[in-house]
Write a structure and sequence with these properties.
It is built from 24 helices and nine strands. It is mostly helical. A three-stranded antiparallel sheet has the order 7-8-9. The protein has a two-stranded antiparallel ribbon with strand order 1-2. The longest helix has 19 residues. The relative contact order is 0.10.
Amino acid sequence: MDSDIGGGCPFAHGGNTSQENPVTKWWPNALNLDILHQRGARVDPMDPDYDHRKAVKALDHEAVKADMKALLTDSQDWWPADWGHYGGLMIRLAWHSAGSYRMGDGRGGAGSGNIRFAPLNSWPDNASLDKARRLLWPMKKKYGNALSWADLIILAGTMSYESFGLKTFGFGFGRSDIWGPETDINWGLETEWLADSAQRYGNLEEPSTMYNPLAAVHMGLIYVNPEGVNGKPDPALTAKHVRETFARMAMNDEETVALTAGGHTVGKAHGMGDIQNIGADPEGEGVNMQGFGWANAGHDAKAANAFTSGIEGAWTYNPTKWDMGYFDYLFNYEWELTKSPAGAHQWKPVDMPEDKKPLNASDSSLRQEPMMTDADMAMKVDPIYNEICQKFMADPQYFADTFARAWFKLTHRDMGPKANYLGPDVPAEDLVWQDPVPAGSTAYDVDAVKAKIAASGLSATDMIATAWDSARTYRGSDKRGGANGARIRLAPQKDWVANEPERLGRVLQALEQIAADTGASVADVIVLAGNVGLEQSIKAAGQDVAVPFTPGRGDATDEMTDADSFSVLEPLADGFRNFQKEKYAVGPEELLLDRAQLLGLTAAEMTVLLGGMRVLGVNHGGSKHGVFTDREGQLTNDFFVNLTDMSNSWHPVESDDTYEIRDRKSGTVKWTATSADLVFGSNSILRSYAEVYAQDDNTQKFVRDFVAAWTKVMNADRFDLQD
């Protein structure tokens, strides 16, 4: 996928989010650091010593599952279940919670319970899912902290499929909730729901031109428009958009067909009534609505009268049973375009006998016309999708197994490696999309390895840069990347421009030999070499600080690595090494915020790391931008001292978007810089951190804080250490 198609930007626009704070309201171009602070301890209601993994392990998982299955058929008067079973609603809740995930930046997804908050809780595509969450409240209330909303929502969908007769692939507990909206996610720049799709594409006829990292075709939708591209039915064009959207969620064609067919094998769509009579979304309603949205005056406590998408009807004869009914309807009947009672485009069967139609969701004495969406018709019209459908129809067990695996992938993709899964139903099988890494050895002499590294002839700069490049791919959004596995030595990472392949190859050759000689993993040796380089640089600056190290990383192989899916982790910019592959719609300082947030850094940690990296001289390609010191290679606080020195003045160089730092009296150019450097002296918040590290009494604190932040990045993906 192109990185910057048609003027779009592959980054989260963290510095200028649509969530206004008092600063950005008055100064809209101000760098908004909220992206780095939104998940701080101040918003978390749990006790400081609360251990969620420990609580989850103590949970009675079998009791939870039994209670969930009982809940599914306990229809409530205030929101009755279709055919007496909430399975279809809960599957949609789980699906839409997980379906916001996109591979481009790993953001979205079900792993944090984010569907409870704006904007997702009020997206048009999530209409009435507020009711599903409220139906689950008794279970959350009963099991408390150990059963997170994130786990509960996905469990509800998975248990629904089991209740309908599907043998599911497994389930992993262990997701942790967040406690407020995620302002770091770029869902698009549109200012209205379901705006013209063309705003998201370079060319609407070519789905691959959708601006990254977006995956859905409209603001407020999870996938594609069920009525057709821009609401205009055209199954062939819809098929192209389905393929692109699901690919951006890391799904191939077979998984896409399985999820579409399996998702529509059960439940129904709701489109009774006039959309003009539907109330505001949850965030827009008054306090008297109890947090509910989309009030439907004509609902009359009947499931058959509900309104969500505007499309109306079931896809199968038995909407509460896992079977092959979806394919039976789709391929055994011709379909013609029609409209739902709410006026939405949908497809109806031609000449279907009355006794072949599904029962009404509220009145078993009535039968109702089934329907297909434009995306369903795409499964029949597109030759590749059609062929896969035929394969599934010929082998129902293969279809069931393929769907079960795809559902598991959909609902667990953003949990990261299997080490994060808890509970009795975690599948034993290692799946390539889980980025498996074998356990590494700890039975080697760390000091002996350090001695060999120090005697290798590698420079501190080379060792530090290589360790950083290996670790910086980590994304807290979906827990992918990082130093564990040493995938920096495999395709595609070894060839990324950001990793300086020629230098990387030379360094890896030396480190791989040390690993072979000592029994340590290459992954451990890479990180340990970075630590050795740091300790040398610290000592050169007159201090003596040991950099913490925990052995046990493993080495992944090509067979364990889905190279195509790793391509999205390529650093297109890294402000910590003053690298930018090309010019983007936002400045280097905003791209720096994006990477810092994915790494899980606070603003203070970002500040100390960048200042230290500059004086260490590890800029990409040996660039001198931001190297505000005459002691390059020593870990000093010179970056901050000189950044805040008022004997210097800053001057833009118009030709290449860089700056000159000049002596204020003589005009002599002392250094050059990018905006990713100077923002630490110009932004009021970042300058407050920079001033701390520039103080005469904080030279030791600077080194301590740098080492702590460095170690945090090196260990970000050490999920094996969390128990």
